[in-house]
Amino acid sequence: MSAETVEKKAPYVIEWREGFKIGIAQVDQEHRHLFTLVRALNLQSVQHTVEELLDYVVTHFSNEQDLMESSGYPAFDQHLKLHEEFGAHVADFLGNGEDWSEERVQELRRFLNKWLIGHIMTHDLRFGKWHAGQKALKAAPPAPRTVAPQGFFARLFGKH
Ligand SMILES: [Fe+2]
User: Fold this and answer.
1) What separation in Å is there between the alpha carbon of 57 and the centre of ligand 1?
2) pTM score of the predicted model
3) SS3 for 81-125, per residue?
């Protein structure tokens, strides 16, 4: 492909937006940085930019996983699997032996942006909501004890 055709093709760029927030400041800030690194992928310094991005992905995943595990997130195992699947997919892509080209960089950027958005808006957001719920539970005063119905009321409203 000539330099002219490369220039004509608009790069695939998705900017981070407020709507991607999941409500956990550290995670949101890391997600934002991931978008910056994906945007910075370029053919001229592809080895360096890919390496920097993947290093940061590893850091981010482990931070997110630590937070999930330490807070007792019930869907932690499932989430861990999604991160592993992502890693396997990227490893496949990078290991297919193809030379880097503008198209291949674009393909990687497209995949990363789509995966990130899909993952953040579904699975990370689910964690964000659960996390907020846990915080609210801890902040709330203890719920009044419910008294089990006894005698006549138990027979009327309770088990038959
Ligand atoms: Fe995640």
Assistant:
1) 10
2) 0.80
3) HHHHHHHHHHHHHHCCCCCCCHHHHHHHHHHHHHHHHHHHHHHHH
Residues (pLDDT < 50) of the chain are: 1, 6, 160
Instruction: Dump pLDDT digits (tens) for 22-36.
Output: 999 999 999 999 999
Q: 110 C-alpha to center of ligand 1: Å?
A: 18
**1.20.120.50, 1.10.150.120, 3.40.50.720, 3.90.1150.10: which CATH number matches 3-157?**
1.20.120.50
For residue 119, report the distance from its CA to the centre of ligand 1, in Å: 6
Report the alpha-carbon distance of residue 8 to residue 81 in Å, rounded: 39
Residue 133 alpha carbon to ligand 1 centre in Å? 18
- From the CA of 43, how far away is ligand 1's center (Å)? 27
Where in the chain are the domains? 3-157
Separation of CA 86 and ligand 1 centre (Å)? 10
